[in-house]
Amino acid sequence: MTNLPTDANQPLSLIYLDANATTQVLPQAAAAALSTMETLFGNPSSSHVTGLQAKQIMDKTRQQAKQIVGADSGKIIFTSGATEGIQTAILSALINAKKNLNNTISNGKDYCLLYGATEHKAVPESLKHWNEILEINAEVKEIPVDELGQLDMDFIAKEVPNALMICTMAVNNETGVYQNINLLDKTIRANNPNTAWMVDCVQALGKTSLNLNQTSIDYAPFSGHKLYAPKGIGFMYVKENAPFTAFIAGGGQESGLRSGTENLPGLAALSVIFSMLLGESESSFAPVETLELFRQQIVSALTKAFPEIVFNNSFEHSVATTINFAIPGFSSKEIMDLFDAANIRVSSGSACSSKVTRSFVLDAMGLPAWQSESAIRMSFGPAMTQTQIDIACNRIASAAQALLQSCLTLDLNSTDTMDSHNINDKAELDGLVQFKVGGSCSWLYVDKKSNSAVFIDPLPEVSNRLQTLLTCRGLKLVAVIDSHGHADHESCRTSIAKEFLAQQQADTLGWPDNTPTINIHGNQYQYISLGKKWLIKVPTPGHTDDSISLILCEPVQASTDNLVVHYAFCGDLILMDSLGRTNFSTSSAPDMYTSLQLLKSLIGNDSLICPSHDYNNEFTTSISAEMSRNSLLTQVIENSINSKEFSIQKYIMDKRIIDESGSEIMCGALIGDCDKKPVREYDSASLAEAMKHSNTIKLIDIREPHEYVLQHDESFAENVPLTRLVQFVQEHQQDKQTQFVLVCRSGSRSHLAAQALSRLGFDQVGHLKGGYALHQY
Asked: Disulfide engineering: 301 pairs with which of 30, 306, 393, 576, CB 3.0-4.6 Å?
């Protein structure tokens, strides 16, 4: 192996739809920057000819910037980017405010600093930082927005009289929503003519017209890399006579307003972009009317591909280049992974946040939590072309079609394929599938031969997905069962049973009535058949009085036989690195003691346990794996502690549980800090070298089937989706010395999975650091 594949046939061309995060540098701008570095490299502050030539570039770029933002008067100061501009504006305004406060007799006012609730985090964090550093101690207040993302003018009118500064933005980076600058101007100045006003104009450049001279805006930061210039160059507008304090002092460059040797290559690139905006050179930029048609085409493709899509921004109040949406039943990470496999780059909101999480912007707009958690942002710039839009729309259709690989959708509106890439038949499903929502787990077991399935601990968030999967594959649902009455979520068992098991009579947990019984080691247990396997119900109270464990095993031949166990679904009896809590009103520590010993006697030490919670992404465990780190469990299994002593220690353990308001209820106290075992990390060179010297290395692609089918090479790696990892562990119990190397999109999932396998005794497991993202052709 010399290279990692990007596609079964050929690499897909990149469709970049994350321009609000950053943009590629246009060839013309890159050429200007390179030429400047090679031939016009002088220091603009030098008085010799080379320096004067460099200064000419800087002067030209400054003049162009004034034209573009409508700043005949006022100053244009070049910076490293928007964050520096924001710091400079806030520091300047607050130093001036403090000076005025020191010179003014206290009039009993409670001063505040105002910012829009949907503002980029650089603004409120900077306000809080400098407010504290300068010891002004004004109250930092959020200006609410409505469901369209528009600022509350009544709130501004009420609060701005006491505001030392107000910060708003022209265009929001997540939703593209633009504010009515003229209305803001009138509202602010009617109530406070003197407060400092900063407007973040980063996303407005090149997308809306600006005429800053016609406003009372004091400061406006801009960034070059959002509009095809290199990173590290930006500028800010400062109104004539607005308070100003240099943020960077030193050699006195920029007339003493911003010291430091000027970024001449960046300025040369920025000048090229400005020439395009001003029509001074051949432009690569589409007019606003064309950009609106592009948005309309993408929206149409998205709606056709995902009929239930919900758009989070009003197009009437947003710039044409930003589309924010959510797809019911899919997390933002799932859609990002899907599009990434199709070589479409999108964002889950602001790319300035490294974690995929809820959007504070959509939360501020009052949108439902699921929309905030599932938000996807598509954004493009004015250099987007019709050809790229056409490819993007075809790629969106194919990405949606690929979801059939996992039976995650039923509604296909198009059979078009992308770039000669065929979507194959649905991926085979036979065995165990894990669904995770936060720290909670649901388990689906499918027996392919009998075309039957059982669903255990059903989570409401995956109800629609399960029903789609059952319908897509034509599966017969035998039972849907809860392991106990859950305190941390409401089971959706009843609704699923109503849809697929309307005629079945069952108890409160979903166990079917009138099932046969079997004698095992002197005790009677009920069971149901699932193909040629049995699912045995074992009462295991303790966490709650109704708790049961479900053991999937081979049929029992004699009452004295040991069970041949495939999986034990034990609810919250045994958790990874913990035992279920026993401080609910229906809990009993003595009962848990008995249940632990009973479960061990039935499944042994090494059978795989599938609990209803997995707080540390460990997927599955076994009694022996837990005994290696859970001394209390070890004492129970080895009978070195009695029920009373167990209850005392369990009480102490449960006191460590902290249920945070608004978050899921913890169903067990984690014992340690869950240190992950180190696993071998490969890069493409070391992996190629290892495979050259060994033909026993097995590469496992752990992406989901819909990702795998869009971007894979079957000769390179076998597909074992992360949702099927527990099945993989069960099937490879005898292969723990095999060299497995796991691969995913970015290396994150493969790292987690490799750590889980390592903990379960797979001693030779490794993963590809950086995944396909860092190791493509």
From this structure: 393
Q: Residue 50: its pLDDT value, please?
A: 75
pLDDT tens, position by position, 665-692: 778 766 655 566 789 999 989 998 998 8
Strand 766-768 to 740-743 pairing: parallel
pTM to 2 decimal places: 0.86
Per CATH, the number for 680-774 is 3.40.250.10
Q: Which homologous superfamily does the CATH classification assign to the domain defined by 15-19+286-406?
A: Aspartate Aminotransferase, domain 1 (3.90.1150.10)
Half-sphere exposure of 130 (CA within 13 A, CB side): 22
Catalytic residues: 352
User: The CATH number of 80-257 is which of 3.40.640.10, 3.30.70.380, 3.40.50.11590, 1.10.540.10?
Assistant: 3.40.640.10
| DSSP SS3 for 700 | strand
Do strands 376-379 and 322-326 pair parallel, antiparallel, or not at all (unpaired)?
antiparallel
Q: Check if the beta carbon of residue 649 is closer than 8 Å to that of residue 632.
A: yes
* DSSP states of 596-648: HHHHHHHHTTTSEEEESB-TTS---B-HHHHHTT-HHHHHHHTT-S-HHHHHH
**What is the rounded CA–CA span in Å between residue 337 and residue 333?**
6
Tens digit of each residue's pLDDT (9 = 90 or more) over 638-670: 999 999 999 999 999 998 887 544 455 778 766
SS (H, E, C) 110-144: CCEEEEECCCCCHHHHHHHHHHHHCCCCCEEEEEC
Q: How far, in Å, CA of 242 to CA of 94, rounded?
A: 12
Nearest to 671 by CA among 639, 631, 613, 635: 631
CA within 13 Å, CB half, 449: 5
Token digits of residue 587? 């809990």
pLDDT digits (tens, 9 = 90+) for 73-108: 999 999 999 999 999 999 999 999 999 887 765 566
d(CA 74, CA 521): 89
Going from N- to C-terminal start, the domains of the chain cover 15-19+286-406, 80-257, 435-654, 680-774
Sort 455 into a burial class: Cβ within 10 Å, 0-12 / 13-18 / 19+: buried
